[in-house]
């Protein structure tokens, strides 16, 4: 076991560290969570600094209501990610803010029946006033009325929506502006779904969204890329949708893969499955640089982005 | 705090206990995980023994490859669940077995790159031979060729598939036989999606599946029911899809709700969110009987089903 | 990979199952949590049905306030465990009940500042009235006054305490009666510690408990046993204390090992470490039958005990 | 609910951020894990910048082999912590390095039976060569021979050990130098225990360590402090030992409390219990600033220390 000759250098912390300086200490240590975060930063940096690599961001969980909207928009605007795969809910909360409302700091230790009476929706310790949700419903249904009356894929549908959003900090708007395709396989499983249903009750079926059509586009992107790299925040549908493409494209799997999750592997679900397991399927290459960080993405991802941006600023930027 | 006058009776275990006798000991104890399992059994039993309650089963994770296929088929055949909301993957693995292949007992401590060379796909400690997956792909694509050339909802698509499966132990076949609708909002995010994509590459678009159309049917079921009860195995899209309907139907939320999950609430994602949180949204009624069991569904759900079946056998059965 | 030829048989559940019949279905399935519970039952049964095996029970967490006191006392009375390693807290709560008080069913969704004002101590959803805790303090300090004025090991101290408890359902009393030694390495880290401190403030140092002395006895037990088997409920000090003995006794490690835990391995702590990791140290034998069940011990352990007792009743009992 | 008027400001990340600048972005966001880390930094900073507050560090898990030794030694040297409560294992691994050996970067995906043959001990992805462990045993047993032949508390024992360690980067040596008491209630549950046992086999009982004697010193420290603040890395004995003192000292509980853990509360054990629960017992004051961060301490704690050191450098330092 010649490979295990690397001594653990103990992390040193001083009073004047940039984020990447701390991450580099994590890297000298190289073990436990700290070592994995450092590896994740190295991988993400390599992905975004190579011209030949297409970068996919998987976005599950409630990161947009939880304060990560701007981090994602800025990555899109700076072309640090090329493809977004998301849940519907994250796009709903993007639009709630785009239409002028905010999310609020609440508490997780509350009487939820009382919140219901007060018309406050809770997402762990984030509060959302129901009146703001209703405002979003109304504005979004208006927006739907302006959509082209034709058959679309989900990606095309979200592009048409994004074009019609004014807020430059909107994820959907930024993606539409920058040519970043947004995939959302479970779109009906969100307030977008509920509002399309309401819209059709009133207006009848003016547009049609085909459930399988996105696979053409997604496969084409994967196939064209010289190298593919995935950053997955949480698991869920975005993780699986990103990974499954490799089974048919037969590229041997992603060349880079990072997942940040708090789910565990033992109950067998894909969200908590290791990236090692993904290698057995050919979803992640056996030669890939891959790491799974067990942690809260609201902590880990901004940390990674700050370190990667610091490295990019110190080198010749990618584009 | 007058309500907290109930002493904890310590669990007694003897050598001659039926499953429900043990569950009743859990109920006398009433705290920690044991107390929650006992409450889950009471709720599930009340749901299935009331004529006026529509029962929804949410099926996330990898429970079908993990050995729970028959438990679910039997619940459908015995009309103990009325609606199934599932991931695509669980239906894929249902078809793999329906088409004659098996899943195998493997190990989670393996060299996944070696498994890839051996053409074995791993799902935690379940192994699937790639040749069996290919057999499924071929058979399923053949089956697709027989589907009606028209626009369908995802539910209709899965009904058409289910009707064409011979195996009586198949979940999809049982659901088609027994009139249990199967919803699968993220259907393109599975081998079903990949195979439809392959099929269309070869045959062009013969059928057309609308992404939002299922909401009509699902809302109608929820609206018509006098009482609604949800059993959610894992979280993911099935949990959210079941719960979100209440936001528009405005019934005040589910009357019964049980979730079995290993996800945690703190990172803010819906899969690990408490059922209390769902009350703030009106997804679960403030007066509902609701419990979340933190555990592996492959252990907890068969335990619950065995206890509920034992109670049903001892009372006048529901139908 | 010839070993992976075992098909997964899907679990079947009917209305008339004993606990072990369900566990045997789990065993036919053989994967995920269900498979691990079945393996844990097989191991526990083999341990208790072999005359040559010494059985250690590690007891961390709050299982005694959580309703498992009787399960453990009965295992001691029936000589199904030979050695108990515990936290101090579990013995404190054993004495609270032995002295006539109860624990109560509470709730985990409460205002803890209000509970403090009401003088209710909370252990997740278990409530304990502070007045009952004070009664225990008083009774236990009285009991201490009766202890022999000499140097003791912690094991001897707990034996002397156990002999002075009247309640036959007490774990400490049963252990004293049945010759089951009770080890509690962190004894000062509990109300026992606090009460000994109070006692000495009043009475001065009448007895003297040596912190390291237990290792003599524990090593001797491990050394004398032909085979050693450990059941560990939770992790903590009991897990480590049980396992570490093998490092010096050099028996190659435990022959049987079962751990039930909800802790995870990735942050590196011993409580969540896998039993595989223990093999690298020689704590668990490379040839051991060993399984770690990810689950709540209040659910899993009574399930295991019920199945093992059912098997014992059907075979020639051990003693 | 007037208090919930604070809008969530989305985190902004740029290419030139110090660690505390990022933490301040987390604080503007204020929710999910990011918000909790920001709150933990605020609390830790307030603790160390107030002259009247005694700071306790609880150290569970395997943080010393995992690369955090230097972080802790430096906190002791700079008098940013006043009291250390630890597991035995962390002090063992401190001595292994003090005696000249290192820990190595390994892997968690290995054949542990093979590691056993290679005489490599594994702690998740940290490797330790057994020959280095044996070197430590030998050196430590030599050191024990030099200890005073008298009765000691565990704290005194560890002080006597610390004084005899040469390495200035040693936690035990730094604590001895700086007058920081080290408490280790479960000391026999570690290689320290095993080596004392070996030593006594050879040399007979030359010194005696009293199991309960530390409580005098610890209570005195808690009682004397005007304000008390606890930072708990992991749970286990250190968490409970720190918190339990308040039950007798009756100060109403800690004024500041931060815990970093990956354990969960639902199974009822203290390690995963919320700090809210601790308020019901009076362990943490109802008016305390307290936060529990769900995360890997090897990531979260250096992040916190870097931010606190940055703030201290920008203000008038404490001492």
Features:
homotetramer, 319 residues, alpha/beta, six-stranded parallel β-sheet, three-stranded antiparallel β-sheet, 13 helices, 49% helix, globular
Structural class of chain A: alpha/beta
Total strands of chain A: the figure is 11
Low-pLDDT segments, ≥5 res of chain A: none
Q: Would you list the SSEs of chain A in sequence order as H and E?
A: HHEHEHEHEEHEHHEHEHEHEHEH
Which range does the strand content of chain A fall in?
15-25%
Largest interface: A-B, 75 and 75 residues
Describe this structure in words.
Chain A has 319 residues and is an alpha/beta fold. Chain A has 13 helices and eleven strands. Chain A has helices at residues 19-29, 32-49, 64-77, 88-98, 112-118, 130-145, 154-163, 171-178, 191-203, 214-224, 236-249, 275-280, 297-314, and strands spanning 53-59, 83-86, 104-105, 120-123, 126-129, 151-153, 182-183, 208-210, 227-233, 254-261, 284-294. The radius of gyration of chain A is 21 Å and the shape is globular. Chains in contact: A-B, A-C, A-D, B-C, B-D, C-D. Chains A and B meet through α5, β4, α9, β8 and α10 of A and α5, β4, α9, β8 and α10 of B.
């Amino acid at each position: 076991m010649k490979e295990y000759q690397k001594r653990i250098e103990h992390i040193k912390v001083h009073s004047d560290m940039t984020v990447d300086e701390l991450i580099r200490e994590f890297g000298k240590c190289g073990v436990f969570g700290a070592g994995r975060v450092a590896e994740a930063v190295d991988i993400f940096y390599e992905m975004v600094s190579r011209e030949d690599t297409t970068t996919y961001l998987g976005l599950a969980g409630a990161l947009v209501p939880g304060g990560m909207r701007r981090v994602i928009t800025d990555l899109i605007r700076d072309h640090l990610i090329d493809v977004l795969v998301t849940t519907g809910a994250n796009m709903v909360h993007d639009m709630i803010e785009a239409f002028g409302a905010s999310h609020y700091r609440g508490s997780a230790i509350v009487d939820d029946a009382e919140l219901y009476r007060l018309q406050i929706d809770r997402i762990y310790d984030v509060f959302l006033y129901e009146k703001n949700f209703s405002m979003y419903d109304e504005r979004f249904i208006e927006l739907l009325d302006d959509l082209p009356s034709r058959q679309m894929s989900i990606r095309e549908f979200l592009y048409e929506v994004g074009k019609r959003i004014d807020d430059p900090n909107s994820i959907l708007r930024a993606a539409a502006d920058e040519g970043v395709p947004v995939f959302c396989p479970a779109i009906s499983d969100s307030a977008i779904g509920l509002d399309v249903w309401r819209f059709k009750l009133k207006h009848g079926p003016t547009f049609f969204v085909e459930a399988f059509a996105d696979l053409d586009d997604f496969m084409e992107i994967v196939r064209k890329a010289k190298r593919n790299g995935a950053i997955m925040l949480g698991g869920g549908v975005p993780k699986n949708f990103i990974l499954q493409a490799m089974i048919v494209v037969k590229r041997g799997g992603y060349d880079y893969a990072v997942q940040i999750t708090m789910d565990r592997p033992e109950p067998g679900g894909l969200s908590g499955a290791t990236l090692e397991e993904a290698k057995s399927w050919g979803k992640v290459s056996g030669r890939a640089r891959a790491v799974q960080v067990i942690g809260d993405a609201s902590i880990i991802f901004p940390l990674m982005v700050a370190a990667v941006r610091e490295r990019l600023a110190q080198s010749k930027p990618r584009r």
